[in-house]
Amino acid sequence: MEQREESIFPIEEALEMILVFDHAGKISYANAAARQKLGYDNDLCKRHISDVFPNAFRAVEKGFETDCTFGNELQNLVAYRKNLTCFPVEARLVQDAADFGMYICMANDILEKEFLSREIDRIKQEAKQAMKVKSEFVANVTHELRTPVNGVLGNIRELLERGTDEETEKSLRLVERCCNDMNKIINNILDFSKLEAGKFTLEPRRFHFRNMLDYVRANHINRITEKGLGFFMTVSPQIPEYVIGDELRIVQILNNLLSNAQKFTSWGKITLEAVRTAQVNDRMELFFIVSDTGIGIDKGDRDKLFQSFSQVDASISRKYGGTGLGLNICKQLAELMGGQIEVESEKNKGSTFSFSIWVGACEDGETAWQQDDGKGVSSAMGAMLHTTGENGENPENIRKYGTPENRENLKKNLSKLILSVEMENWEKAEMFMETVRQLTEEAPREVKRAALKLKMAIQKENYEKVTAEFEELNNFLQSEGEVSHGL
């Protein structure tokens, strides 16, 4: 006995309770934690193990019976103190490898753990209930706000239809615009509340992709061109005519990004591009890019953009308005659709927002569609991909990545692109870049991504960035033996 106590003395100060008992159930050793937690002095030894765990061990003539398993498995038991009060423990029972007639019980008091677990469950329930109350409150308030706003809006439109003098019409148009802005704010608050409460669900369905972009364009073209801005929109011919997704929420993201671009841009142009970047079985990744030449954002302020109720600084809210919810909602919507949203921007040089989503593909054929408005760059540079190429080349071979015709046209257009950049003719550089992008439509994903990054740099007219991104794209192409050209 003295030898055993000496051999196990290092565990005397262990934080867990340790009990050693024999085949008869008699406890031969209990460390300090066991004695303290069970309320014994030195009289725990010689007691039966069933005195400590009466629900798990039974004293019999041969020693003890138990339903517990011996090994490394953790078991939930109830330990009884000397005063017959009890508490829960997590215990591990093993047979002594040195003496098969001896057993070791190692147990941790989980009373505090169970109490904290119950407290956590209670707090979760309270938070869930509070969220429910908040969501219901927001829904009711927004509904109550929407009713008078729509009432005012209806009366304003009725007055406008009757015909009024120029001064009165100007005032009525201002009130109408305020009502529309109020409805947008109400919708943002309602969407944000649903997203925060986890009650927001997507409603995917089959829709005509290019018709959707026509609708988006119609919503913004007048406001953009009224400011004297160019508006350029293009969609990759690799995107099928019909896709399966939540059309309403895609439109919501695009409307928000284009509204911000229009709001923060006083001169230059706004561009919208949609491309297909990947496909897995019947699911494909769509990548949207919205660029502007507006006020831009400092690098240190970009993280604030996607936080709820946050804008870069207070002057932005005073000058341009807004709740600071739009981009946060866009971020959550993009993530719900399996993608993400990012921003590249430089103060006073414009911003480029890009987001990806995953949609279902429909086998309804593919149609090339490109649009140009205002002072935007003409999309006619892509015509070579849909007609006979130079020297009677087959347009299908030109478009097919990796063919001799494709390699030759890539080489020519990259040379012209770089020459335009060196001459600081950014509009021509964009023209050749669009052709390069289309020539790499069927390229591997990393090549397409590199082409997109180069396009973003050209749109921002950033020579250093263009140089770096061109080198990256050129390296990808050279590694495949397709193009050999350098700055």
What report would you give on this structure?
The structure is a single chain. The chain is an alpha+beta fold. The chain has four domains: 2-109, PAS domain (Beta-Lactamase, 2-Layer Sandwich), CATH 3.30.450; 124-197, Helix Hairpins (Orthogonal Bundle), CATH 1.10.287; 204-365, Heat Shock Protein 90, CATH 3.30.565.10; 377-487, no CATH class. It is 46% helix and 20% strand. The protein has 14 helices and 15 strands. The radius of gyration is 35 Å and the shape is elongated.
Describe this structure in a few short sentences.
With 487 residues, the protein is α+β, with helices and mostly antiparallel strands. The chain contains 14 helices and 15 strands.
Map the helices and strands.
Layout: H1 2-7, E1 17-22, E2 27-30, H2 32-38, H3 49-52, E3 57-60, E4 63-66, E5 75-80, E6 86-95, E7 102-109, H4 111-162, H5 166-197, E8 205-208, H6 209-226, E9 230-235, E10 242-245, H7 247-263, E11 269-280, E12 283-292, H8 314-320, H9 326-336, E13 341-345, E14 351-361, E15 369-373, H10 395-399, H11 404-422, H12 426-439, H13 445-459, H14 463-479
Parallel strand pairs: 9-11
Antiparallel strand pairs: 1-2, 1-7, 3-4, 5-6, 6-7, 8-10, 9-15, 10-14, 11-12, 12-14, 13-14
Helix pairs in contact: 4-5, 5-9, 6-7, 7-9, 11-12, 12-13, 13-14
